[in-house]
Write a structure and sequence with these properties.
By secondary structure, the protein is of the alpha+beta class. The chain is built from four helices and 14 strands.
């Protein structure tokens, strides 16, 4: 009986049987099928010519800070420039007004002075001394300005010799118009004061060294208003100091002695502003 021949195992799909009866590996298994999606992603990542998706950038705060600083610097510059221009205009206007009006301080002088009494007495205990004084003099006030007028309040007058206060007096109020002067006669300064013995001894020693000649100082204090056209300033203080007045002290019942005032100088201390100009 003949043998039946059975076919070999199932042939491998898409392949040929091997010589040893085993199925050969399919050709398709040797190679992998490329993934189109992966290829697309790789080309997108590594292609330098491809465009990246738009992403909005955060706001630049540094630019805003710099712009704010530039505006602040600009404002400061223009403010300083305007202030400098205003100061320059004020200086030019003040110089022009000063040149036009040429303000000058008033002038004072004492042409004559008489010493009626100047007595120095010391107590028995030498602790205190007494000074009795009577002076009479004339004051001349001048206004050298062509555009300014002065209005004076009442004056307070005081007299001294060295460190010793001799007495005081008053002067009535008056005014001086442009380029005018006035003479105030019979200005009386009197006093009867208790003074420390040391000061009186020093004055007595000076009188002996100068053969009875006393060096006097007269001081006048008041307030004044200056008028320029229709403009008036506020009241300001003024002090007039007249020094280097020398007079012989009369003794006993001798007549009043006439002091020498030719070399005396009167200093006027007045600081007043007119349109930013001080004189």
């Amino acid at each position: 009986m003949s043998e039946k021949v059975f076919p070999a195992s199932k042939p491998a799909a898409n392949g040929t049987a091997g010589t040893n009866g085993t199925a050969a590996a399919p050709a398709a298994a040797a190679t992998t099928v490329p993934n189109p999606t992966a290829a697309t992603n790789k080309s997108h990542l590594y292609n330098p010519t491809s465009r990246l998706p738009y992403r909005p950038q955060p706001h630049n705060r540094r630019r805003r800070t710099r712009s704010g600083r530039s505006i602040c610097c600009c404002c400061c510059f223009w403010t300083i420039l305007v202030i400098l221009l205003l100061l320059l205009v004020a200086a030019i206007a003040g110089a022009a007004l000063y040149t036009l009006y040429r303000p000058h301080r008033p002038a004072f002088s004492i042409p004559s002075l008489r010493i009626h009494r100047l007595n120095l007495t010391t107590a028995a205990d030498s602790a205190t001394s007494h000074v009795s004084t009577l002076l009479n003099f004339t004051v001349i006030a001048k206004n050298p300005n062509s555009h300014l007028s002065f209005f004076y309040d009442p004056f307070t007058v005081s007299a001294s010799s060295g460190d010793v206060f001799l007495g005081n007096g008053t002067l009535p109020a008056f005014s001086l118009s442009k380029k005018n002067e006035t003479s105030l006669r019979n200005v009386v300064v009197s006093g009867s004061n208790e003074v420390d013995a040391e000061s009186v001894n020093g004055l007595r020693s000076d009188l002996k060294k100068r053969n009875g000649v006393a060096a006097l100082k007269i001081q006048l204090d008041t307030k004044v208003v200056v008028k320029v056209g229709k403009v008036k300033t506020k009241k300001v203080g003024i002090r007039v100091t007249c020094e280097d007045i020398k007079g012989t002290v009369p003794k006993g019942k001798a007549p009043p002695s006439v002091a020498v005032t030719a070399g005396s100088k009167c200093k006027v201390d007045l600081r007043i502003k007119i349109w930013k100009v001080t004189f």
